[in-house]
Every structure is written in C-alpha cells, then in structure tokens.
C-alpha cells in the first residue's frame, strides 16, 4: 500500500505585521495615559484589563465568571460608571477599535463560534439599551486567554542539528503545541478560565506553560517532540504534516508516561490520548472511525484498571481533498466548533500551519505561530513569571475554502458523559454529511477490520473490544503501519 506524502515545502518567514505594531503601540500609549486611574481597578483580574487598559475593566465580570452564549447580565448596582461602560462598549465595538486591536477585518454581525462558545457580535448590541456585556469584548477576552505558541529563537540547540531557532519550519509543531495546551488548560482550569492581570498566577496555569518551554527539560518542548517523531519524518529544519504530528504526540506521551512511572509517578498528561484513524479502506478515502470500545479501553488502561473512564483527548487527522479542500466539507468543519468539546483545528494554508480556534461566516479565526519571539522557559514554581509572550490579542482570519485539505481536529472530553455527548453530536453530523462525513462513530470494529497496524497505532480485534495485549494505554500495537495521510 502507498502513503500520501506529507507536505515538505518550508513555509515562508512571517515577520510581525503592521497591525501587531499598531496594537502594541496603542496598548502602551493608552496604558501610560490612564495609569492614574488603574489603582481603583486592581480587583479586576481579567485579561481585558491588559488589552484595553484598566478603564475598560468596568464592563468585565469577575475572574471566575465565564461568558455564556447570549446570556444577559444585570447592571452594576450602585456604581455611576455604568453610563461610561455603555460609551466604552460602543467604542470597543466600532470597526476602528477592532482595526486598532489588530483584526484584519471587522467582525460581521454573524455569531462567532470559538472553541465551543458562541459570541453575539451584532453591531446593534453596542447602541441598544441592553445591559449585557459586549459580545466583541467577551470574545476578545476569551481569545486573549488562549495559549499562544510561536517561533522562538535563542534556545539550546536541537539534538545534533545546531539549530537554535525554528523560524521558517516549526509552525506545525507550534500549532500542535497550542492545541494540546488548550486541552490541558481546559482540564486543569475549565473552559471558563480567563487569564488574570494580577499576580501571583494560578499554579496550574504556570505548570502548563512550563511544559511547553524550549528545552529538553520541558516535557512537551519542540526538542522532545522532534525526537519522538523521528520515525514519522520529524526533524529539525523540516516541515511535516498534521498526521505525522499527531503520531509524534502519541509517541511522546507514551514515552513521558513510561518515564514518569519509573522516576516519580507524576503524570504530565492527565488524560488518555486517542489518535483516530480510518478503517481498512482509509487509504481509498474512507472516513476515520471513532470506536467507542477503543476509547473505553484507552481510558481503562490510562487508569491502570482502577476506574472505567478518564478524560480523553481525541485527535482526528483528515485529508479533505487533493490540492484544495472539497467545499462539501466546509459546513461540517464549521459545525465542529459548536461542539462543547472543540479544541479547534491544526491546519492552515498549504505549507503554512496555524491553530484555527474559531469561525464566523466563511472565515476561520486563528492564532498565528509565525511571530518570532525570544525563547523563554518558565519555572513551574514561578507564579510571578512574565507570561505575556504566551498570549496574543491579534485576531487573524482566513477564508475556509483556502485551508489546506490536510488537517487535524481536536476534541477534549472530560468524562464519560462528555464523551457520550460528543458521540451524539458527531453522529448527528454524519447524518448531515450526505454520504461524505468527516469521521464516523461506531461501538466496535468488526474482527475482520483493523484500524491501526503499527507500534504507534491502536489495534482492534475480537468481537467487540480491542486486543488488550496489544495496547499499552496510549494506543500502541506492534504491527506494521500503513499511513492514511
């Protein structure tokens, strides 16, 4: 059997955009002018305070509250600042402010779906008598709280390559780090978590950032990912596709788990990982198959038999066309962002990977890894660390029909009920696919079929369950592999 090759062209170097510079300058200037008012707003811990400067904090909610879809909030009780909040809200919702903040285009009146959350950004909301928070502001607060991982320079050389930067070739690795980082944030802190302004930071938040530092000492660094993915073509200086990247994560997490058992028993990746591949017809275009029995076995093995279910991360590599994405898949891709379990998409333009975290109309909203920053390694106990290089206020967009057809979708399911809900939504999505689904869901795999056939795959055999002897808890078997992407 033959394998579809991973794309090998190195993406062009992207320098920081003019919008970045304008946004940075504006934020710096505004912060300076309003410094005298900031002391009275110290209790506001939202990330919006650092983006809009403190006076904008008057329409923020408490740190532990989360923006909910179309939910109305009651006005502030006795504060006379509510009138000002309406004025500032109108400023924030104007096109000029959004351009100043770095958006390539002003958001339309359509809903924004961002990692399972819906934001109403209708321009009418800024001029109405509604007492709700601005949909624009709530969306930007959420966007700015997501972990942003970019090109870095100045880190220790990767293996024997002598490379101390991943500029021009590491965007796929960085995009995958962003997706996995969101899964860890959702697991430890919840979907409603927003980055606070005040320090000390939450220990779990700092611990997650430490995992993605640029050194071999950090579990999920670019150094360790490249080492884990060597058998799939990952190498310093070379660009790889999403399928190989998903397999590299599978290998790295298995290795990390084995080392943790030997050293201190501390688990850096507190969930099972399921890389969903196709059935025996996968090479000829068959959709990947989510097997419920396989997921159950992975969770059981992750817990070492102590409980029947665990949190689980699903990565679904896909090829949705040849040179360009087949338009019939675009509505289905958009709908995956409405799943509460959504972790977005690892993909972008051909040869240029990004982390797509939201959609609006026919546009994908993404975090761009192509900005170049100096390497930083945040100590896990440094709750006062400067984490600004891991967050971005620049909302970039891309037409969905320009996305590379080779991509991977991520989903995080916290427990069995969450996984069951995911399966129900995925099954409904299959019914809308007119015979061409993104992926399918089945209870079990027939004995004559085998989803994976490699030491980095999942073996399905027997009447309904996987062969327990072939699994080690991260979806590994010992057969020869065929590659569908």
Describe this structure in words.
This protein is α+β, with helices and mostly antiparallel strands and 485 residues long. The protein has twelve helices and 13 strands. It has helices spanning 18-33, 48-52, 82-92, 95-100, 135-145, 171-189, 203-211, 222-228, 242-263, 292-302, 330-336, 416-431, and strands spanning 112-114, 117-119, 151-153, 272-275, 289-291, 312-319, 342-349, 352-360, 363-367, 372-374, 396-399, 406-413, 440-442. Strands 1, 2, 4, 6, 7, 8, 9, 11 and 12 form a nine-stranded mixed beta sheet that branches. A two-stranded parallel ribbon has the order 3-10. A hairpin with a 2-residue loop joins strand 1 and strand 2. It is globular. It starts with 17 loop residues before the first helix and ends in a 43-residue tail after the last strand. Residues 1-106, 125-133, 280-284 and 448-485 have low confidence and may be disordered.
| Rg, Å, rounded | 22 Å
Number of distinct helices: 12
Strand residue percentage: 5-15%
Oligomeric form:
single chain
Estimated structural class: alpha+beta
Which residues sit in consecutive blocks of at least 5 with pLDDT less than 50?
Answer: 1-106, 125-133, 280-284, 448-485
Topology:
Layout: H1 18-33, H2 48-52, H3 82-92, H4 95-100, E1 112-114, E2 117-119, H5 135-145, E3 151-153, H6 171-189, H7 203-211, H8 222-228, H9 242-263, E4 272-275, E5 289-291, H10 292-302, E6 312-319, H11 330-336, E7 342-349, E8 352-360, E9 363-367, E10 372-374, E11 396-399, E12 406-413, H12 416-431, E13 440-442
Parallel strand pairs: 3-10, 4-6, 5-13
Antiparallel strand pairs: 1-2, 1-8, 6-12, 7-8, 7-12, 8-9, 9-11
């Amino acid at each position: 059997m033959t394998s579809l090759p991973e794309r090998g062209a190195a993406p062009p170097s992207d320098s920081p955009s003019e919008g970045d510079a304008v946004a940075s300058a504006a934020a710096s200037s505004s912060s300076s002018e309003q410094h005298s008012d900031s002391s009275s707003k110290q209790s506001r811990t939202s990330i919006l305070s650092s983006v809009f400067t403190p006076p904008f904090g008057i329409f923020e909610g408490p740190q532990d509250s989360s923006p909910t879809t179309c939910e109305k909030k009651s006005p502030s009780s006795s504060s006379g600042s509510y009138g000002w909040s309406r004025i500032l809200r109108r400023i924030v919702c104007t096109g000029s402010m959004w351009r100043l903040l770095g958006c390539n285009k002003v958001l339309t009146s359509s809903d924004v779906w961002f990692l399972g959350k819906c934001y109403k950004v209708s321009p009418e909301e800024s001029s109405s008598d509604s007492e709700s928070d601005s949909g624009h502001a709530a969306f930007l607060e959420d966007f700015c709280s997501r972990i942003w991982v970019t090109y870095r320079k100045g880190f220790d050389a990767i293996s024997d390559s002598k490379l101390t930067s991943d500029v021009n070739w590491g965007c796929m690795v960085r995009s995958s780090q962003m997706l996995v980082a969101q899964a860890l944030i959702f697991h430890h802190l919840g979907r409603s978590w927003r980055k606070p302004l005040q320090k000390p930071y939450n220990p779990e938040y700092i611990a997650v950032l430490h995992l993605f530092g640029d050194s071999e000492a950090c579990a999920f660094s670019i150094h360790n990912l490249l080492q884990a993915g060597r058998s799939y073509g990952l190498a310093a200086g070379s660009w790889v596709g999403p399928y190989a990247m998903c397999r590299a994560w599978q290998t790295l997490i298995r290795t990390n788990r084995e080392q943790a058992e030997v050293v201190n028993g501390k688990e850096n990746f507190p969930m099972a990982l399921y890389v969903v591949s196709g059935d025996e017809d996968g090479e000829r275009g068959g959709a990947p198959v989510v097997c419920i029995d396989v997921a159950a076995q992975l969770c059981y093995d992750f817990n070492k038999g102590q409980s029947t279910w665990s949190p689980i991360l699903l990565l679904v590599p896909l090829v949705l066309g040849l040179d360009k994405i087949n338009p019939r898949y675009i509505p289905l891709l958009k709908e995956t962002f409405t799943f509460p379990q959504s972790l977005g998409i690892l993909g972008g333009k051909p040869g240029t990977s990004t982390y797509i975290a939201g959609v609006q109309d026919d546009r994908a909203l993404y975090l761009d890894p192509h900005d170049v920053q100096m390497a930083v390694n945040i100590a896990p106990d440094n709750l006062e660390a400067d984490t600004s290089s891991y967050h971005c206020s620049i909302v970039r967009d891309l037409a969905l029909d320009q996305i590379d057809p080779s991509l991977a979708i991520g989903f995080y399911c916290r427990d069995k009920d969450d996984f069951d809900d995911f399966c129900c939504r995925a099954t409904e999505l299959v019914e809308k696919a007119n015979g061409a689904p993104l992926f399918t869901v089945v209870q079990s795999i027939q004995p004559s079929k085998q989803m994976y056939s490699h030491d980095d795959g999942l073996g399905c055999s027997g009447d309904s369950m996987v062969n327990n002897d072939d699994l080690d808890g991260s979806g590994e078997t010992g057969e020869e592999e065929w590659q569908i992407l």
